[in-house]
Amino acid sequence: MTNSLRTPYDGIVMAAPVTIPYARYSIESAQWWIGRALSALVARAGIRVSDIDGLCVSSFTMGNDSGIGLTQHFGLCVRWLDTIPLGGASAIAALRKAARAVQAHDADIVACVAGDTNHVDSFRQTLESFSRFNQDAVYPYGAGGANASFALIARNYMRTFGVTREDVGKIAVAQRANALRNPHALMKTPLTIEQYLAARPISDPIHLFDCVMPCAGAEAFLVMRDETAASLGLPAARLLSTIERHNAFADDPMQVRGGWAMDVGELYAMAGVKPDDLDIVQTYDDYPVITMMQFEDLGFCNKGEGAAFVRQHDLTIDGDFPHNTSGGQLSAGQAGAAGAYLGLVEGLRQVLGEAGPTQVKNAKLGLAAGFGMINYDRGLASGAAIFAGPAR
Amino acid sequence: MIDPVQPPRRKNPLLRTRLPASPPRPRSRTSHGFTRAAAEGRFVLQRCEACGAFAYPAREACPACLSAGLSFVDAPRRGVLLAETTARVPSDVYFRERAPWRIGLVKMDCGPTMVAHLHADCVEGAPIVMSFQLDKSGQAVAFARPEEETPNMADDRQWREMTADPKFRRVLVTNGRSVIGQEAVAALKAAGAKTVFVGVAEPWRPFAGEQLLRGQQGIEVVTLDVSDEKSAADLAADIGGKVDILVNTTEYVRPGGLLDRRGTSIARDEIDQAYLGFINLAQAFGPAMRMRGADGVSSSAAWVNILSVHALANWPAFGAYSASQAACLSLSHCLRAELRPGGVKVMNLFTGPVDTEWFQTVPPPKVAPRAVAQAIVSALRGGLEEIYVGDVAEEIRQRLAANPKALERELDK
User: Fold this and answer.
1) Which domain holds residue A336?
2) Number of folded domains in chain A?
């Protein structure tokens, strides 16, 4: 393993994981959803709004607003502020920045929040104006959106490594089983592998149950030093390590690995743990094939062994490899940028023992990953974090 | 292998005509380097002047060395198809109506990877040939075809969306009295046009070549005097809903410029025939063509103008004529914008002096009318916007790009 020269996150903790239950469509604005999340954070932590002195926000649908507009909107007076437009990697990136801010005493309590609304036409609008490369060189080609782009990646990956739809489907089916225990998940009916295989094609080889359901919602947590958490009497999870990487492996003609593969050694070295030590894993599941890629790139198996790994493990809450315990984006819903937060927030609940019906027994050590921004032909942003509950 | 496109069945007049939709149109300004190339049927990519690397999509700095010196240059067209997908549930109206729609990711031999529309015969792992085509919103898109010719290649459904192939379409050639008009009729018939309507003014007056038009299968002589608003409107009332391609072969060439003519009567005739004739045609036929841009196999598809290359640079020996052509060129850009919502292409063919009586005293090289007719067909098949026919036109294009002042001085002789 790589020896890390990076400053350890000693004494940095996360607390008050908050999820505002999702809605398929909402007539409210993104600002409304973010406001609900901030309100829930304050209530959950038992602090005053004025105690929040740092804010980090991510959203696709808040129009011309960035974090600064939100300070006035929500009556916040902060001394540290960031807006992170990294899609599915936003939560890990927010956590990394907030952790260093509180470690340096630039701020004491940072609220990390992501929220998006979903009006009837907002998903299509996000697709067509996603990025310049997307506008110039992807969207005019069939307007298939992320489904078509990831279909190309999935097709190449599945052919290269001999992965079948059954292999990929097992991930989606397990997550649906988990979602049935999450009262807030949008998907409320069981999913069998037969139903998965029989689903209608969206953009071959992507079929219906490979796709997330766009929705409205918000997720948030607080980052602070452990003495702050102790003084508030807040249960908190210690941050052990993080990685973040953008535009990795640009010379790969097609994406068969994400940036995690570049930094995975450091991820575990900095945390001082091995993949086997983890009690729960929350991958970024915009498509199950990307989850399979993460199993490889995050060190649970070698490249090309993702399918075998999935075959050999039970990915449900009570299984031997509890994964995406809330149902993930595939079954709980993808609330825009909050989708980046979903895994991390659920992971925090798990190691804090607060996950309720989705709780994995004795979950102490967790990993959450992020992935995002299919700017042209591949997802550019990747990140991951390892964290430990008070019991470890 | 693809099935040949079938001739459209007779249209049920009671059914609603599907209205045209446009594929996504926004592009960055730099990306229009591809639009410029696609208009002429060239394939270009950005290449770094500093390190030689090719780049795609359009960039403002070289991803290999950060130089800002990226220029659009003719690039090798060959690549290999890495992966394909079929979008079955696209999110915009144009593609949703045309789903399933096949796209792929191509690794170009010269370096970049390109998302491209796929010809149905493209196979993963096999070589392809890339081109930029103008789609129904008039924007350049990459289109991959198999390297080798395949059966019925031009009948590919996605390819036909990019082109204006005359096969099974109905065409109006506006001037059957001219040799270019007659050659155009023959070439379009040979290219598979279902019907060629050919306009003749004062049809009781006999003209050379009349026997080539009358009584021929699939050719209908119609009365049309483009300089007469009522004549154009009357014809449109009769066949306006059946004109899928309009080829404006209006021709009115007189020598002379300003000082050696007396008064404006010849200039008026030039304007009446070429410029006002264009307006009459556009107002009569344009609206229906714009409506019928998505009307099946024989949808309206293109408007073709035959212009003198001296529309781009005045030739004083035919100075007033050059000006009338410049007016038509400007108007064609207006027409292109107005037909764009229908997905109807406006194509301009620029020719040097044609081998006809009004250029009798002009020394060779002159363009054979048949070459113009063939260029019309190949422009329609390729979906082009700007076509230079013959050596004079091509030379003026190049000299204009190199130094317009030098061209201006040298045309004065």
Assistant:
1) 131-212+236-388
2) 2
Q: How far is B113 from chain A (nearest CA, A)?
A: 7
- All structural domains of chain B, each given as residue ranges with its CATH number in brackets, are 32-162 (no CATH), 170-411 (3.40.50.720)
- A 10 A CB-CB count for A196 gives 22
Residues B261-267: contacts with CB under 8 Å, at least 24 apart: B261/B320, B266/B320, B267/B320, B267/B324
Q: Cβ B31–A137 below 8 Å, yes or no?
A: yes
Query: Which residues in B lie closer than 8 A to residue A250 (C-beta atoms)?
Result: 63
Tell me, letter by letter, the H, E, C secondary structure of A110-138.
Answer: EEEEEEECCCCCHHHHHHHCCCHHHHHHC
CATH number for position A142: 3.40.47.10
Q: What is the mean pLDDT of chain B?
A: 96
**Chain A residues 142-201 within an 8 A CB cutoff of chain B:** 142-145, 147-148, 151-153, 155-156, 159, 200-201
Which residue of B lies nearest to A203 if distances are taken between CA atoms? Answer: B87
The complex scores an ipTM of 0.92
pLDDT-derived band of residue A136, with 50, 70 and 90 as boundaries? Answer: very high
Condensed to tens digits (0 to 9), the pLDDT of residues B294-341 reads 998 899 999 999 999 999 999 999 999 999 999 999 999 999 999 999
* B376, HSE (Cβ side, Cα atoms, 13 Å): 34
Do residues B112 and B56 lie in contact, with contact meaning Cβ atoms separated by under 8 Å? yes
Q: How far apart are the C-alpha atoms of A232 and B181, rounded to whole Å?
A: 89
Of A235, A294, A229, nearest to A92 (Cα)? A294
| Chain B nearest CA to A250, separation (Å) | 10
